[in-house]
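Exam revision sheet. Question 4 asks you to relate a sequence to its structure. Input first:
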Amino acid sequence: MRIVLTVNGAVREVDVAPVARLLDVIRETLGLTGTKEGCGEGECGACTVLLDGTPVNSCLVAAAQCAGRSVVTVEGLGSAERLSALQEELVSHGGAQCGICTPGVLVSAAALLSRGGVPTDAEVREALAGNICRCTGYQKIVDGVRAAAVRNAAAARGAS
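Answer key, structure tokens:
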């Protein structure tokens, strides 16, 4: 079947099998390999993307359900030439180590930061509860997310 969806701001038309997962369409059909497959069962969060602004495990979503909807992958958060504040802060705080969880963590954190304000440690941990990280112990990730929130808040104040 043919579906039309918006991926990282671009309208895309793709052929999908009725049982195709969104993860497979993102990686194999669209060539966006930043989204990782960790467990394939929705437990680890490595495949997290935003579907209409809500974090979802793309390994559990049928691609056909995404017709007419908006998907944002980690590639949609920034670029190699211009990282987002969140990406920069995660790197500078040592919140990205092996890299398997990093795309899902970034996407989940981006959803949290889109609400505005500076979240508490507990709020960051809650937002990232679906993302398993085996390397960092999470505190470096939490620190990076909160630093990005502070930066974003300062930029918003400066823009007004």
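Marking note for examiners. The mean pLDDT is 96.
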